[in-house]
Amino acid sequence: MSQEPQRRNAKGRQRHRGGPRKFSQSAPAQRSRRADPARLTAFRVLRAVALDDAYANLVLPAEIRRARLNKRDAAFATELTYGTLRAQGTYDTILAQAVDRPLEQLDPPVLNALRLGTHQLLAMRVDDHAAVNETVALVRDQVGAGASGLVNAVLRKVGVRTLQEWFQELTAELDEVQSLALRHAHPPWIVRAMRQSLKLHGRAEQLVPLLEADNAAPEVHLVGLHAGGQQPGDAIEAAVAAGAVRSEVIEAAAVFRGGDISRLDGVREGILRVQDIGSQWVARALAGPAIAPGERWLDLCAGPGGKAALLASLAAEAGAHLTANEPAPHRAELVRKALAPISPQAWSVRTGDGRSISDTGQVYDRIIVDAPCTGLGALRRRPEARWRRQPSDLPQLTHLQQELLEAAVGVLASGGLLAYVTCSPHPAETLVQVEDTLSRHPELTLLEAQPLMEDLALPAGRQLLAAAPAALSATAAGCVQLWPHAHGTDAMFLALFRKEAR
């Protein structure tokens, strides 16, 4: 019986692909000069992210509409865009082995095209020759013929190995953190921060599942609001009728996997919104305890308005009033638009620095400080953030978080509740801030957030929270840290304080 021929590369490593890799034999000048629309869409998004610090999740839908892509091409462009951005650091490490100069010496459009080509070669079901030829055509169309030869040569070098073979070669002399960082496309400093946070919350063995969850495509979560004479459940019912699945974690929420949400009833009216269930959950926690009519609430960092809209909806139901504060005028306008469908008696918008909130002369019964942070808890939704953020960002952000907390405590009414929320599990932005705030303010008591969130949850949500392992400190045990791999949400953090009467 004849045996299948062994497929080994030049270094003698066994291949794990179904056959030898095939590249086009035509010269770059003989190939297409026009960019494929789906690949061009991804290229434009990468350019906006690199040049304008744009967020891919905001730019990509507009580019898909601009290119008038059909459903199949839109899915291809989406996978190519997010996959390339997510693995950018890993791909740059691989490209550095295949390019004859430092990557920073390449023109940014050429480097972006190489990243797109590398993702197609190593992580997508794209024929090797198509991955190379279409990338070369993209470069010829968008950059010029001069760079096409370089791109062709580099991608051929990249395609000599599979992704696993590249990992084997590049991680041979790395330590554990560096190896995990390369294999799971996270900067090493983020891997270290995640490992530390998981340990503090009793999940030390869950680092790899968390990194894997960060690289999974996120679900679209929906929230229904009390607005326009409709109840929150009305919008969710309509979404379910259109193909959404009602959340099993919390009420008035759903999961949508059907594509463009703009076609759902309630979206244009503003009573159905996209919002991660973790964000919904922590906002509802602030409004969970019994509400007295006429209470004054404050969202100190309201832009762009997601949590503010939910809180305003809850305030409208309870007869309370929300002040949504946002320092940037253009973001304050986004907040107004987000709140517009809700009864105007239930909310107002203040444009001003949250650190000067005491200038209003008001005190508030409930305050949420959803502080600016590194955003490490939402890497599934904003894959470019992992490469954009640096450890040097932390001092400025944590100082701002501290100042905002101080301002909030200063206007919190006696007996009032203060929710400190971040979309980051980094200990410096979460547990350290809580402990520092308690040390400065003996009038504050840290409430147990988990029982409150369990009370707001459906049975499946209660089970998720109840399954949390024991934390390493009383502070961590009193707070709630959600995780993508454990709860299916962004890594939202919640600490809930009460101001005791002096």
From TrEMBL:
UniProt keyword Methyltransferase, yes or no: yes
Domain SAM-dependent MTase RsmB/NOP-type: 199-500
Family designation: Belongs to the class I-like SAM-binding methyltransferase superfamily. RsmB/NOP family.
Assigned keywords, A-Z: Methyltransferase, RNA-binding, S-adenosyl-L-methionine, Transferase
One Gene Ontology molecular-function label: RNA binding
GO biological process: regulation of DNA-templated transcription; RNA methylation
Domain of life: Bacteria
Originating species: Nesterenkonia sphaerica
Annotated spans, Disordered: 1-36
The protein's name: rRNA small subunit methyltransferase B
Biased composition range(s): Basic residues: 8-20
Pfam families named in the record: Methyltr_RsmB-F (PF01189), NusB (PF01029)
Residues of the active site: C423 (nucleophile)
InterPro entries per the UniProt record, alphabetical: MeTrfase_RsmB-F_NOP2_cat, MeTrfase_RsmB-F_NOP2_dom, NusB-like_sf, NusB_RsmB_TIM44, RCMT, SAM-dependent_MTases_sf
Binding site for S-adenosyl-L-methionine: C301, A302, G303, P304, G305, G306, K307, E326, D353, D370
